[in-house]
Amino acid sequence: MTQNAVLEWFTSRVAIFWLLLLVVLSANLAYSFISYQKLTEFEYASINAKLISSKERRSKNGEPYFLLLFRSNALDFRAYSKINMKSNEGRYFDLIVKTDKLSFADTFKAPKLKIESMTTSSQNDLIKEAFRRFISDQHESPQIKELYLNLFLNSEVGSEVEDFINAYGLGAFFAISGLNVALLTGFIFLILSPPFRLFQDRFFPYVNRKVWIFALCFAFLLFYSYLTDFTPSFVRAVIAAIVVFYFALRADEIVNYKTLLLTTAVCVAFFPAFLFSIGFWLSFYGVFLIFLFLSNTEFKSNITVYIALSSWLFLAMMPIIHYLFSLFTLAHLLNTLFGAIFDIFYPISLVLHIVGLGWIFDPLLLKAVKSSSLLSRGEFSTPLWFFISYIALSFLAAFDKRVFFVLNVAIFSYFSAAMLFLWNQGIPG
Questions:
Q1: SS3 at position 197
Q2: Among positive and negative, which fits the CA dihedral 39, 43, 47, 49?
Q3: Which of 24, 54, 269, 396 can pair with 85 through a Cys bridge, CB separation 3.0 to 4.6 Å?
């Protein structure tokens, strides 16, 4: 390569983009390391942190305790408590924690720290608290409050609502991610288009209406990311939406692996802790499977694509989900139907909460939450060897359609094994 060719490569837009991402990643890692050094300078550190969740757990001898998740500027961390602090979620505390055994890598993985003292802080996030109250005040049942706060703001839920979500296999719908971005963007576009068109026709007829509306959508989505404490799966989806919009403006192909790669790189550069987030990688892999399916299939009808993609994605994610979570019920097989219901329920419930009528579905939802205790359950886990082989096979399928066929054979075989498991467990009966 000649000197001019090297210079041309380094000055190309692609090279500049990757160099900028490298600079951003380096700056974030440097900031994290400086924060880590301050935390571990002494045996104990004083931290101001927000309580994200308080979850009840049981020890080996059956005694209850509570697992707390705190978020500070330096790191997220977990701690144990004998007191239920559910009512204090969203509040800030001044804590003294033991950090002498904390490693730099731990700061990205929400380590467990021992709390020596804890007092209520005067700091408060009034904006987030106002949104929480606005949603909570529309419901009487504690379970329904938890459900909607989780649905809209990614708040943690109690054991009963958690059991409902797991038993019916609704985790993908309640995890704020790309589905929420798509539904919110469609909803905002629908709401803003009529008034924007009215002003555009009168005052600025030559402006591209869609560009400006999408810009407003992205501004709202970024604000919504802040409300959800920058949930990894949601942030990835927002960045993906911006990348897709950029490619669309350039008239480039949108549904391709380049979009996914760029989105992932931007997310990791700005949020290095995402590398250790299961939710982030589940979101990444789910989008990868969507691209894989769309690039290897052809359907003429949008409805057919929707049904086929939803059904195939559920089956294709089963080996991954059951490697992480072994719970299996017959209700999980209704995932495609639940997805169609959710696509209608989510925007309707959002509108109802905006106008103060969020309580309308409460009786029905409360019955659904209570019904989860009646479902028969089994423990079905993906072996590690199959998990690794399956992921490798899926990535190879991106390069060869014949491997995609083999992947589908593996998916069908796994699903058959799961059905046999349900039958042997007597769960269908």
A1: helix
A2: positive
A3: 54
Q: Which residues pair with 54 in a beta bridge?
A: 68
Looking at the fold, whether 312 and 368 belong to one and the same domain comes out as: yes
Please answer whether residues 306 and 256 qualify as being in contact, where contact means their C-beta atoms are separated by less than 8 angstroms.
no
- Average pLDDT of 195-215? 77
Residue 6 and residue 10: Cα distance in Å, rounded? 6
Q: Are residues 329 and 389 in the same domain?
A: yes
Residues 228, 176: contact at Cβ < 8 Å?
Answer: yes
Residue 205: which region, alpha, beta or left (left: phi > 0; alpha: psi -120 to 50)? alpha
pLDDT-derived band at 7 (thresholds 50, 70, 90) equals: low
Other CB atoms within a 10 A radius of the CB of residue 127 amount to 11
Q: Is residue 243 part of a domain?
A: yes
Q: Of 276, 307, 336, which one is at a domain's C-terminal end?
A: 276
- The CA-based angle 330-153-219, given to 5 degrees, is 125
- The Cα 51–Cα 229 span in angstroms is 12
Q: Domain span at residue 72?
A: 41-124
User: Residues 407, 323: one domain?
Assistant: yes
Dist CA 100 CA 175 (whole Å): 34
With 0-12 CB in 10 A as exposed, 13-18 as middle and 19+ as buried, what is 390? buried
CA distances in angstroms from 127 to 75, 121, 380, listed in the order given: 22, 17, 42
Burial degree of 398 (CB within 10 A; 0-12, 13-18, 19+):
middle
Evaluate whether residue 15 is within a structural domain. no
Same domain as 233, residue 331: no
Model confidence over 136-184: pLDDT tens digits?
999 999 899 989 998 898 888 878 888 899 889 888 888 777 778 888 8
The answer to whether position 222 is within a domain reads yes
Which CATH number do you get for residue 72? Answer: 2.40.50
Model confidence at 429, pLDDT cuts 50, 70, 90, reads very low
Is residue 185 located within the same domain as residue 158? no
pLDDT surpasses 70 at 335: yes
Tell me whether residue 283 is in a domain. Answer: no
Residues 305 and 411 in one domain: yes
Contacts of 139 by beta carbon, 8 Å cutoff, 6+ apart: 145, 148, 358, 359, 362
Domain shared by 317 and 390, yes or no: yes
Candidate from 2-16, 209-223, 408-422 with smallest mean pLDDT? 2-16
CB 108 within 8 A of CB 275: yes
Same domain, 392 and 308: yes
Structurally, how many domains does the chain consist of? 3
Q: Please return the burial class of 401, using the count of CB atoms within 10 Å of its CB with bins 0-12, 13-18 and 19+.
A: exposed
